[in-house]
Amino acid sequence: MVLLLSDEDVRSSMDMAGAMAAVRESFELLGKGRVQMPLRVSVAYPNTAGVVRLMGASIDGMGALGSKLLLGQASKRAPGLTYFVVSLFDPADGHLLAIMGANRLTQLRTGAASAVAAGYLCRKDAETVGLFGAGVQAMGQLEGLASVLEIKKVRVFSRDRGRRDDFCRSGGRLLGIDVQGVEQADSAVRGCDAVVTSTTSSEPLFSGDAVEPGTHISAVGSNNPARRELDVATIRRAKVVVDHMQQALDESGDFAIPMKQGLIRREDIHAELSELVLGTKDGRVDDSEVTLFKSVGIASEDVAVGRAVYDRAVKLGLGREVTV
């Protein structure tokens, strides 16, 4: 029998604190060499938005063996359809344990990774966040940061004013903080202690010259070589940490485009997040540093959180058993 978990079951099984614990442990084990994780594989149907991305990981120490299907293209996904699926397997013999909808899981693991990184890279007194984007992942980023920072004010910039206003209302209610829309991109950068980018932009969202000393940036939108949220000035000014070196270099236009132009080098990236978690590389060392966490999303995060979801769902009696 296979446990089938809906996205609502996942939501009932897991919160941000639980996701952060699972993600942190997965990065610790990744740094210790106990994670097997091939690079993401993509298959596309010609001339359509039909794209399948396959991500898999084995995490020794968490009893976690699984895969994730990431389907379709951002900004081209239709409401109410399934585009994120995680499958879990028994590490003892590989049989299928569970299939779960992973829309909320993806939001949680992405926000959790940024929150874990912020613990090492963001100033402890940070209280004002500038946010680019007003979608599901932007909300997950805000939820994650609010779990590790005493946020008092959020400034949201989005080209879709209606979506931005809806986001501000729902974000304010969810987190109980002041969430306001702004009309200019620089207003979500200047005077902000932390800046989050969660968009599908193909061009840099702001000038690196607008970034003030001491700012921490979480960039999660660009996981495609043609998409880009950050300019070269931002990357050059920052202490750069990535979730996975090779995937970040291959998949993010934030790095791929300027590296092809010879404007930045691999050596400009300070560390992987696993190195900060293990303490083999430093995070923020003073309050004037500009820090950057660049996330493309990796399979070990999904599989770790998926395993935690499964364990909780079994205890809570959620989902339904099916034969496949």
Characterise this structure.
With 324 residues, the chain is an alpha/beta fold. It has two domains: 2-106 and 300-322, 2-Layer Sandwich (ornithine cyclodeaminase, domain 1), CATH 3.30.1780; 113-297, Rossmann fold. It has ten helices and 16 strands. It has helices at 7-13, 16-31, 103-121, 136-146, 161-175, 232-237, 245-251, 253-260, 273-278, 299-316; strands spanning 2-5, 35-36, 41-44, 51-59, 64-71, 84-89, 96-101, 128-132, 153-157, 178-181, 194-197, 216-219, 238-242, 269-272, 290-294, 320-322. The strands form two sheets. Strands 1, 2, 3, 4, 5, 6, 7 and 16 form an eight-stranded mixed sheet that branches. The chain has an eight-stranded parallel sheet with strand order 10-9-8-11-12-15-13-14. Strand 4 (51-59) and strand 5 (64-71) form a beta hairpin. The longest helix is centred in the middle third of the chain and has 19 residues, at 103-121. The protein is globular. The mean pLDDT is 95.
Helices and strands, with pairings:
Blueprint: E1 2-5, H1 7-13, H2 16-31, E2 35-36, E3 41-44, E4 51-59, E5 64-71, E6 84-89, E7 96-101, H3 103-121, E8 128-132, H4 136-146, E9 153-157, H5 161-175, E10 178-181, E11 194-197, E12 216-219, H6 232-237, E13 238-242, H7 245-251, H8 253-260, E14 269-272, H9 273-278, E15 290-294, H10 299-316, E16 320-322
Parallel strand pairs: 1-7, 8-9, 8-11, 9-10, 11-12, 12-15, 13-14, 13-15
Antiparallel strand pairs: 1-16, 2-4, 3-4, 4-5, 5-6, 6-7
